[in-house]
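To: structure subgroup
Subject: Chain for Friday's discussion

All,

I'm putting the inputs and outputs inline so they're searchable in the archive.
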Amino acid sequence: MAKVSFGEWLKRRRRAEGWTQKQLAQEIHCSTITIRKMESEERRPSLQNVERLVEVFNISPEKQKEFLRFSRGNAHAFSDEEAANEYWQMPPPLFPSNLPVSLTSFVGREKEKREILNLLTRNRLVTLAGVGGIGKTRLALQVGHHVLPAYASGAWFIPLESLYDPFLVPETIALVFNIRKEPDRQVIEILKNFLRSKTILLILDNCEHLLDTCAQLIGTLLSYCPNLKVLATSREPLGIMGEAVYRVPPLGLPRADDILAQYRESEAVHLFEERAQLAQTDFVLTMENVLSIAQICNRLDGIPLAIELVAVHVDMFSPAEIAAQLEERFQVLSGGNRAALPRQQTIEASISWSWNLLAENERILLRRLSVFASGWTQDAAESVCSGAEIQSSLVFGLLAQLVAKSLVVISKETGHKTRYIMLETIRDYTFKKLKDSGELQSICLSHFKFFAQMVEDAEKNFKGLEQAVWYDRLDGELNNIRFALTWFKREENVEERLRLASRLWRYWKNRGHGTEGRRYLQQTLEDVPVGPARKKLNYARALTSAGALAYYESDFVYSEQSRKEALEIFRTLEDNVGIADSLNGLGNIALSQAKYSSAHDFYEEGLTIRKGLGDQWGIARLLGNLGLLAYFQTHYEQALSLHLESLALFRELHDQESTANELVNLGDVYRSQGELSQANSAYEESGVISRKLKDRWGLAYALMGMADVALEQGILSTASSLYRECLTIFQTGVDYIGLPFALESVAVLERMKNNLQKAARLLGAAHELRRRTHNPLHPPHRHPYEKNLSLLQRQLDPFNFDVAWQEGKTLGVESAVAYALED
C-alpha cells in the first residue's frame, strides 16, 4: 500500500473539508501557490504555516510536536490516509469566525430564519429591524452560524452598542481583522482593500444610535467589495439603496382555544417554560398553569426579553399571580385599552415590573452597574458601586440575585475573570434610573477613578514580564476606558483626565489605536484652560504622550512641537524624568530624519540625566538608541559595544520585550560586519522571545533579520519562507516603518530569481512608502540598496523598468504586500 506523505495528507484533508487550495491559503494566510507546492512536496511549510494548520485542523496539543516533525519531513509517512487521519483524530475545522455562542437555548424562529436566509441569498444588505428585546441579535447570530460554510472568509460579529463615537465604527470593524492604521490612509480605505476580494459576511449589531455613520460605511464597503454581505440589526432601517428590511416579529403566541399539547407548540410558551425551569428546575407546563402562561405571553406581545424577565419569577409567584400583576400594571399604562400599549412600552413595562420586585439594595446596585460599558468584573462592581447604602461585601451576593432574575448575564472566558454584562435594553432603562437618582456624577467619578487606577497599575508593568497580561486586561476594559475618557467635558476633572490619557500611550501604540489615542489626548489638552494650568506636570506628560503617538504615525512636525513644548515645561518644573523623556523623543525624531548630530546631543543629555537618577531602564534604552545612531553612521564597533551594554541591562531588568528588540539591533550590527552566524543567533533568540510574548511587532523584525541572513548566504528558499512570514505580519499593519525594508529585500530575492519587473515594482512601492512615512534610507542600508538597484537597471531595459517602478508606486500597503507574497 502506498505511503501518505505530508503533502498528500494535506491535499486529502483539504478536499475532505470541501476547500479549494485558495480557500485553505486564505485560512493560513499564505498564497495559493504555497499550498500547491506544499501538496506536491516542492516546499516544506514554514513554522508559521504549521502553526496555522494546527489551529485550522484543531491538532490536539499532545500531537502537535509530531505533526510539526511530519510536516517538515522529519517523521515517517503514514501507510495510508486512514492511518494519517486516525492519528490526528479531529473534528471538522471551523470556518473563520468570531460568532459568539449563546449560554442559553435558542427557541423557535424557524420561519424567521428561513425568510432571512432567503433575503440574504438575494440581497447583499439585510437589516433586522424591531424594538429592543425582540431578539434581533440572537436571530442574526443564528443565521450567521447557519450560513457560515457559505463564506470562505467567514462570518464576523461586530457589536456596536457600547460605541458612541462615530469615528470608532470603521476602526472597530478593522480591529476584528487585526487591521491597523497606515500612514496617509483612512481606515475605511484599508478596509475596502482588505475586504475587496473576500467572500465574507459582516454582522453589525445595534446600529440605531449610529445610523448615519453605519449607513455611509456599509454603502461604501458594499459598492467596493463585490463578495461582501452585511446583516445588520437596528431599531430602525438604515435607509440606504439596496437594503432589504426584515421586521422581526414577536414569538408565536397561543390561541385561546388551544389544548395543552398545542400550547407547547407556541414559541412564546416554550420560551417561558425553558426560562422558568432555570429558576425552578421542577417547573412544568400543566393544565392548571397553562392558561395563565398563555395570558402572560399574549400580554407581553411575545417579546422574548419581556418573557424572559417575567419567567424567572416563578420561584416567587405562581403564573396566575404573575398574570394578575402584569394585567393590573398594563391596564394603568394603557388607560384600559389593551391595544394601546406599543411594543417598546411593553418592554419598558416588563422591565419596570421586574424592577419593582427588586429589594431596594438590588435596585441601587443595578442602576449603578449601568455605568459600565461592555460589562464588568466583580472587583470593578465592588469598587465602583459600593458606598452609601451598599457595603462592598454585599455586592457579590446581590450580583448573584440579579443574575438569577435575568437582569444581569454572566460571560465566562477561559483564562479570564468572570465577567458580567447587562443587555443594552436593560442598561438603557437602568441608566435613566441612575440619572433620576441624583448620583450619576458621583458614580461616573467612581468609575473613572477605578479605571484610572487600573491604567496606572498597567503602566507600571508595561516594561516588564507582565506586559502582555496587562495589555490583555486593558483589551477587556477598552470600552470602559473610552467611557471614562469621554464622560466629563471641558474643564471637568481635566487634570485627572490628562493623567489617565497620558498613561495609555504605550497601549494605544501596541494595540494599533494610535489615532484614537491621539484624539483623546488632543481633545483633553484643548479642554485645559489657557493659563497656569497649561504649565503643570500632567499637561506636559500629556503633550509627551501625544508626541510619542504622532511619532509612530510619522507626524514628525506635531511630534517635535509637542515634545519641545513639554520639554520647556519639564525644565521649568525641574522634572528630570520628564526632561529625559522629552530628550529621548526628540532624539528619535532627529534620528529618523537622519539628523545624526542633533540626535546625538539629545541622547547624550538624556543619558546624563538618567545616570543621575539611577534609572537603569532609561539608561538601557538610551544606550540602545545611541547604539542605533552609531550603526546608522556605520560606526559598527561602537554600535556593537553599546548594544551589548544595553542588552545586558535589559536582561538584568527582566524586560523581555526590550531584550528582544536589542537582540535584533545586535543582529543588524553583526550582519553588517559579515558575522552571519552570530547575527542569525541573535535574530533567532529574539524570535523565540517575541513568539512567547505574542509580540508580532518584534517577531516581524526578527524574521526579517533571519531572512536577510539567508539571502546573503544564498539560501533562497529559506529566505523566501521567512520573508513570507514577516510580510504576512506586516500585512496586518503591525508596523509600516519596517515594511519598506522588507519590500526592498524581497526585491533583491526576486531579482536573483530573474523576476525583474516584479523586483522593480516592489522597489517602486517601497520608495513611495518611504516618501509617505518620511523614512529615509540610512548609510548601512543605502549601499546594498543602490547595488541592487544598479544591477536591476542593467538587467531590465529603461522603459520596462520605469513602467514597473511607476506601477509599484501606485500600490497601497496591502496590495504591495499581497503582490510580494505572490509566486
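Points worth raising on Friday:
The chain is about 65% helix and 5% strand.
The first helix runs from residue 6 to 16.

D.
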